[in-house]
Amino acid sequence: MSSSLNFDSQCTSLEAIKKAAYVFSDRCALDISENESSYICKIIPKKDSTIDNYEDFEIEFRNEVLDQELRIEIANKTDGVKNLILAFAFSKSGLSDNG
Question: What SS3 state is found at 99?
């Protein structure tokens, strides 16, 4: 038995869906397709899967997609600061490109 979830492609990134799918890869596989406005995710449980209730699993999966979406957004917003900190740390390390 399988189930499908739809995500609006204007609100949810494919990257977040893939990251969420990876989190649940011990329980299922995900077949992702796309139409004009959404991603369609077919959930294919493994034979020994612990997915007993699809409604609960879908809620869990949607929450994980949201979590991944927020992680991506935060990473994008803080990338410049992270790079500045790393550049400063390496500039004080004594390592040099001059060999």
Answer: coil
Strands 3-8 and 28-34, how do they pair? unpaired
Contact criterion met (CB below 8 Å) for 20 and 32? no
- CA separation for the pair 29, 37 (Å, rounded): 23
Question: If you ran DSSP here, which 8-state letter would residue 53 be given?
Answer: -
As given in the structure block, the two tokens for residue 40 are: 């369609």
Sites in the chain below the pLDDT cut of 50:
none
Domains of the chain, residue spans: 3-91
Domain 3-91, what architecture?
A: 2-Layer Sandwich (3.30)
Q: Is 14 helix (H, G, I), strand (E, B) or coil?
A: helix
User: Buried (b) or exposed (e) across 54-71, using 16+ Cβ within 10 A?
Assistant: eeebbebbeebbeebbee
Note the pLDDT of residue 96: 57
